[in-house]
Amino acid sequence: MRPLVLSCLPAIFAAFVIAASSQTPSQGRGVQPVTVSFPAAQSAKPLDGRLLFLLSNDASEEPRMQINDTPRSQIVFGMTVDGVKPGQPMKLEATAAGYPVRKLSDVPEGDYTVQAVLNIYETFHRADGHTIKLAPDRGEGQHWNIAPGNLYSKPVKLHVGPKGAAIKLTLDQVIPPIPAEPDTKYIRHIKIQSDLLTKFWGTPTYLSAIVLVPEGFNEHTQAHFPLVIFHDHFVDGIEDFRTTPPDPDLKPDYSQRFHLAGYNRIQQQEAYNEYKLWSGPNFPRVLVVKIQHANPYYDDSYAVDSANLGPYGSAIEKELIPAIEKQFRGIGQGWARFVYGGSTGGWESLAVQLFNPDFYNGAFAACPDPVDFHAYMTTDLYSQKNMFYIQGAEKQIEQPAMRDYLGHTLISVRDNVAYEAALGDHGRSGEQFDIWQAVYSPVGADGYPQPIFDKETGEIDPNVAAYWKDHYDLNAKLQRDWKTLGPKLQGKIHLYVGSDDTYFLNDAVYLMEDFLKTTGTPGVGVPYEGEVLYGPRAEHCWNGDPTLSNAYSRLHYNTMYLPKIMDRIAKTAPAGADVTSWKY
């Protein structure tokens, strides 16, 4: 899952109340007519995309930087436009999808800062015969508000109300390109064009990675190294690795999420501590890799082959990883490859281990996205009929999508889906429910992902749910294939999750643990010989360290699993394997 933008979960409601109370007293409701255009100087050709109209009563930053899936979000309305010519006015329709206010007619009258953004789409002629329009990733990790090339208007303060003067905005600003990060002694980069993905998408498609090389990499040219894939969301660096002490001029902040003063300074100190370990004597010399595989649907492909995204799993394992191992002297054998990660990265780590069990020698999956769709967050996709609510005796009971560590609901599933609907139709929001749908669903008749549920009513499609179960329900796969798969996975499955996970991801882990406990019994197959651990009272994303709080352990991915990885290598490396050249 994409991590919360906010680091202050317990304070969200207080902030929401403050934002709401700062609203100018309402004299009516509704937004006057809004038209948006772009000049030929920004694009001489017609454009397709998602037009977003933003309103904010918080002057601290631009409205485009204040839209998210929490109660602190400011207001966004979206509509899809096709073939709009330079200078042609785009009228914001009354049917534009909105969040957290659903309709333009319901916006309270008051003083706002308004802004418009056009998230530009390109046309893809895919190998499966479908032609679709999507926003390609442009190096930013599928964030429409900072995507290079997207057009936006300058923020304008004005009075919004049904009797106000018509609003006319001009998209005369262009988000600039993102400069490439340079290589350093420890941080290296690699980028390849994927033949598999280029064929699928019908346009040159690339995979890249950030590689943390070990101390002595340049000097020990005869050494070859184990490879560890750190599955994560799109990143442009390795944030938890810092070669200098904390910035002495850094103004300490306060983390409401972790109840810690100066958490930004703590993060820098822990990153510097990691560097000292990494460069010190007797530390395991391995390659740590973060893959960059943002795509037209999300900041991450989920590292598996799928009908809508194409063969990302095959491209990573057949094209990118061999290229990394060749350039950075990886050992290049399954016994010397490992995966770990949290949230989306946790699901990916477990999934690639299950789908290609001989290619990796262990998966450390923290707070994984739902590993059993009987617990798709708060919904059982196989027995329930609706994503939004549970049917009570006399009324429908809304279901939460997020909670804080005390159990307070932060957003309902219905509102979370409305947020995504405002950002894009046909699964083009670039957000969480839409990427799950893109990865797990078959292709719909229109070329876009077949919806798992109706975004207006919440009604679940049982046929799509059955497809999900057959292809991407990881616990279903374990149960279905354990007799043949189990022997290849012994000692490789490690699961960690907080008992109060923000997104209820612990529920699916409970179900997988229930099955894993049955392994080794008659009729099931060999024992799994791994581990499943829970962090008491820990929210997203607890990763398995019982000695430290989540605030600290989440900063230690690149060091905390290495002792277990070294032990696994010692036990499983085949005779004659290179277990010495990288130990210096």
Automatic annotation (TrEMBL):
<keyword id="KW-0732">Signal</keyword>
<dbReference type="InterPro" id="IPR050583">
    <property type="entry name" value="Mycobacterial_A85_antigen"/>
</dbReference>
<protein>
    <recommendedName>
        <fullName>Esterase</fullName>
    </recommendedName>
</protein>
<dbReference type="InterPro" id="IPR029058">
    <property type="entry name" value="AB_hydrolase_fold"/>
</dbReference>
<feature type="signal peptide">
    <location>
        <begin position="1"/>
        <end position="19"/>
    </location>
</feature>
